[in-house]
Amino acid sequence: MRLLILNHVTHRSGGEVLLLRWCQLLDKTRYEIFVALPSAEGMLPEALGRIPGVQVQVLPVDPELVALKRANAVGMLAQRPALALHFCAAVLSHARLIRRAKPDLVLTNSLKSHFYGSLAAWLARRPVVWCVHDVVDSDYFPAWSRRSLGLLARLLARRLVCVSQAVRASFERVGLPAERLTVVYPPPMAAADVPLGAAASLSAELALPARARLVTLVGRIAPPKGQLLFVQAAVRVLAARKDTVFLIVGESLYGDYDHDYKRQVQEAIAALPEAGQIQLLGARPDVRRILDASDVVVFPSLLPEGLGLAVVEALELGRPVVATTLGGTVELANDGQAIWRVAPGDVAGLAGAILTLLESPARARALGAAGQQHVRRLVCMDNLAAFEAVLEHACR
């Protein structure tokens, strides 16, 4: 099968981590894989380029389109004719690519690529499947945006691969029939991706104090991800545990919405009495190494997540996780047995959970072991067969 994958994002994010896993694991004797990206910069092009049997092609998409907030993307296209023309150009250029590549199936893996990729596949008369990572609800999408997304999926997508039951349910609410929605959890990370000796090497690199305890948050720096809440909780923990260092891994990516928030986070860190207690590490290629070196991993999202790939990675590595379990992350929590659950926006509860795990290593180990055991039941090789079955069915 010739498979053409479209993705409008090139930096490291949950959907891109999952895309890499599929590309690594799909049998290259059965699948000829092409990936079209809007830029050669970022984690994804480089990582895909290291996978044998995967071909990467850069097909530029206007940066303004890439940076559009998903909540108002359709409205902005309607209000700005020049931007609408750029969108049409993206559709046409991808339709030409599809005609040249002659794939058996087009797979779109990101929200904006669902739009331009589905229209391009329709023009080129090729079937399209969506990999969907977002909960489509009022927290992220106004009503007209949800309706337009649902309509496009009903008209053009043969099947939708949902990363969680929460994602599936949200698409059912916008009118997708159940038989076109399949939940497929991620496949496991490859054994080669599991870090070795992470703590010692990271401590040396970051010049951490001897016996420092590490608390880590991984994610795009943006208001829904809760980095400011993380800093506020860190202040409370540091009042009791001076041996703790807090790490924020990720970058602001999408215009002023993210960049203004990052400035707020930086200002809050700068107000601390001691430098180095909270470190902004930016985008990193070694996220799993940092997670593996961490004593506690925190996921303080304020809005529902499709699944939370950073949580999946931490659980796979046996790290104790403190999280607000909203959306698909609930499915990782196993009724609170696998993840220490806190309420969204609860600074005191978040700080208390972190402090308890730091002061009780045995409890932290037990939580990490329970989380690892649970995630291994969800994130398993059976998911690869389920994913392949969707691809095969869509080509019939």
Q: What would you call the structural class?
A: alpha/beta
**Number of helical segments?**
17
Rg for CA atoms: 21 Å
- Poorly predicted tracts of residues: none
Question: What summary fits the major beta sheet?
Answer: 7 strands, parallel
What is the CATH T-level topology of the largest domain?
Answer: Rossmann fold
Within CATH, the superfamily of the largest domain carries the name: Glycogen Phosphorylase B
Envelope shape: globular
Query: What order do the helices and strands follow?
Result: EHEHEHHHEHEHEHEHEHEHEHEHEHEHHH
Query: Number of DSSP strands?
Result: 13
Keywords:
single chain; 396 residues; alpha/beta; Rossmann fold; 2 domains; 7-stranded parallel beta sheet; 6-stranded parallel beta sheet; 17 helices; 13 strands
Explain what you see.
By secondary structure, this protein is α/β, with parallel strands linked by helices. It has 2 domains: 2-187 and 380-394, 3-Layer(aba) Sandwich (Rossmann fold); 191-378, Rossmann fold. Helix content is 48%, strand content 15%. The protein has helices spanning 14-25, 43-49, 63-67, 73-79, 81-101, 111-124, 143-156, 165-173, 198-206, 227-240, 255-270, 287-293, 309-316, 330-333, 347-359, 361-378, 382-394, and strands at 2-6, 32-37, 54-58, 105-108, 128-132, 159-162, 181-183, 213-218, 244-249, 278-282, 296-299, 321-323, 340-341.
